[in-house]
Amino acid sequence: MKSTFEEIPEQYKINNLVHQNTYLVGGKLIPWAGETSEVYSTISSTEDYKPTLLGTIPTLGEKEALSALDAACSAYNKGKGLWPTMKVENRIACMEKFVEQMKTKREEIVKLLMWEIGKSLPDSQKEFDRTVEYIYDTIEDYKQMDRDSAKFEKNSGVNAHIRRGPLGVVLCLGPYNYPLNETFALLIPAIMMGNTTIFKPAKHGVLLITPLLEAFRNSFPEGVVNIIYGRGRTVAAPIMQAGKVDVLALIGNSKSANALQNQHPKSNRLRLVLGLEAKNPAIVLPDADLDLAIDECIAGSTSFNGQRCTALKVLYVHETIVEEFNKRFSAKVDALKFGNPWEDGSKLTPLPEPEKPAYIQELIDDATIKGAKVINTKGGETTENYIFPAVLFPVSKDMRVFQEEQFGPVIPIVPFSDIEEPLDDMAESNYGQQVSLFGKDVKTLAPLIDTLVNLVCRVNLNSSCQRGPDVYPFTGRKDSAVATLSVHDALRSFSIRTFVASKDNDYNNAILKDLMDSKASNFVSTDYIL
Ligand code: G3H
């Protein structure tokens, strides 16, 4: 495998470090002169391998974290705040102002995505563009929601004007693999619905938020978006312990989600919007189109080096075709190009977590001691910031690679003779996000689909697992998710139905008419936004 150093194109060189020396609280970018943490890329800028320093971020403490909580609480102001009571069209105008400014930062953010998390250039561009599209789609969906609720209902002599209202203060924590897109998939709908927010960027993929701080500051009223930096334990824990957070919005792993939830003293106050880990299987049936199944399994298990919650993390292949599958699959894995994110055709790129190659090696060692083999030639080849995907076969339940969510480049293949074997494993698993099912015969597929939809939340027929398109529901069972994300669902996950009701009589009806004619209430309104 080639070393990680390549001639870096001029436009992608790190010429200036990003020193993030402010944090956003209460509408102000507050200067920070205290302790800072250095942010490194595992990508080398020199021929002799050396991590590249990208910049620094503030290491904030409990005091600053609680000041962000205070700012978010003040902006919500017990439901009286400017933002939670604002007219829908004015909130939309703020969001439009934000996204217009965000679009001007594409180049800077894409470059930082490549350096901070090692995502390839096309995928980094896609992450940015998909996020902008998500914001526009959210605005459109919100308008539709507003149009749908611009009316009164009457039942059993009671008039009702039903809308969706904000939940309160949202603490938002995103993951390193989609530090822009998934964080914004939480933050944007949370803001849009009138909540106030505290957002702490992920450990890797933190400097790419810097180009957006000014846009957040000047687009939304003070205290609606507060952005803090530091260690989760130091800043997120005291915020939860204060008991004033209404929603914990987190994409990451269930251990951190559980630890944070448990800090909150009022468990019924706390709503949860969580996207957590998964161990999505592929099931390849004897009559599957092997070329198609192999291509989809390659994409599913290796894109972004397997660092996706939706990645295929275990492949069940029927014993009658497994030999042929393994031969062709392994050859295709070995043909994938490893390189720096900006290099043409790089399918495998450096891992942002310095400790990841050693962890993947542990999984390989454990599996090989217990009887599996690395069946591809390059599997396990290691450089300073990478370990080439190892295809392991035959994998059994006692191996760590079967039990743990590897979130990295190692691909376990489990042979099966009876379809009940993968189905039983899925039922026993702590996870339940998606599955990929490869086959053709509808008599076999039909009962399988009917069962699989009850074990996971998306059955991908003859294709790899994925979250998109973002208008489709994205959720999971068990330790894989709480609540549902998608353009449409996220607006609902971050809000609650709330309404004004009055008995249907002349006295009340005259007041309602007055309320609407005067346009004095932002909630009671039957105006349409076109
Ligand atoms: O990390 C999990 C992501 O939600 C996966 O999203 O399927 O678009 O890569 P994706």
How would you describe this structure to a colleague?
- The chain is α/β, with parallel strands linked by helices.
- Helix content is 37%, strand content 22%.
- It has 16 helices and 25 strands.
- A 7-stranded mixed sheet has the order 15-18-19-14-13-21-22, sandwiched between helices. A 6-stranded mixed sheet has the order 10-9-8-11-12-24, sandwiched between helices.
- Helix 1 packs across helix 7 (232-241) and helix 9 (290-302) packs across helix 10 (322-334).
- The chain is globular and about 80 Å long.
- The site of glyceraldehyde-3-phosphate has 9 residues, from loops.
Topology of helices and strands:
Layout: E1 18-19, E2 22-25, E3 28-31, E4 36-44, E5 51-58, H1 62-76, H2 88-103, H3 106-117, H4 121-148, E6 153-155, E7 158-166, E8 169-173, H5 181-192, E9 196-200, H6 213-219, E10 225-227, H7 232-241, E11 247-251, H8 254-263, E12 271-275, E13 280-284, H9 290-302, E14 312-318, H10 322-334, H11 356-369, E15 373-374, E16 382-383, E17 386-387, E18 390-393, H12 400-403, E19 410-416, H13 420-428, E20 431-432, E21 434-438, H14 442-452, E22 458-461, E23 477-478, E24 481-482, H15 487-493, E25 495-503, H16 506-518
Parallel strand pairs: 1-5, 8-9, 8-11, 9-10, 11-12, 13-14, 13-21, 14-19, 18-19, 21-22
Antiparallel strand pairs: 2-3, 4-5, 6-7, 7-25, 12-24, 15-18, 16-17, 20-23
Helix pairs in contact: 1-7, 2-4, 2-6, 3-4, 4-5, 5-15, 9-10
The structure holds glyceraldehyde-3-phosphate.
The site of glyceraldehyde-3-phosphate has 9 residues, from loops.
